[in-house]
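Ticket #198: bound-state structure for 2-oxoglutaric acid.
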Amino acid sequence: MNSDILVSNYLQIDDFLTREDKKRLLNYVFAEEAEFVPTSTSTDETNYRRSSVLYSFPDFAELMSDRIYSSLSTIFNKLELPTFESSHIEAQLTAHNEGNYYKVHNDNGSSGTATRELTYVYYFYREPKSFLGGELVIYDSKIENGYYTNAESFKTIEPRNNSIVFFQSRYMHEVLPVNCPSRSFQDSRFTINGWIHR
Ligand SMILES: O=C(O)CCC(=O)C(=O)O
Ligand SMILES: [Fe+2]
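RESOLUTION: The complex was predicted; output attached.
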């Protein structure tokens, strides 16, 4: 009965940036607080996603894509995926504070997002950690009427400080609600996340 379940694979790499870079990034984000805007989704559904996003952070977007490009063959290898030449890497910077979440979705379901092949999520936050929750849940898949949908089974990933996660953008996934009692922006669950396009 379970033979049609496609098990999802992910890769989590710890200590992705140097301590110095991670510290610079955190200070940069604190200084840019006023530039963050509420998130929306491509379908514009309300109550689907709640968080804040920063769209322009050129230096760190470049640092992140450099680091990703240099790890690309390892990433393909570990995920047991055929390599491809990536046309570009997209990046956004998010903050999840008290009560924020992102319900089940995939990242390449619309015409504007169809070339997203791999999703990456780099996690960072101030220590000591001042939020709970915010785990990333990645669902296994099954094919129903020729379309991928999520199976009941899933994996739960801890958003560890200075780690990065890679997985296929077609996988269904979600961000569980964040509990951040101080509600202070500086205590948020931060990410630089985005997509490796084919
Ligand atoms: O923050 C995360 O763990 C994942 C974010 C996500 O799924 C997205 O931005 O598409
Ligand atoms: Fe996503």
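RESOLUTION NOTES: The mean pLDDT is 94.
TICKET STATUS: resolved
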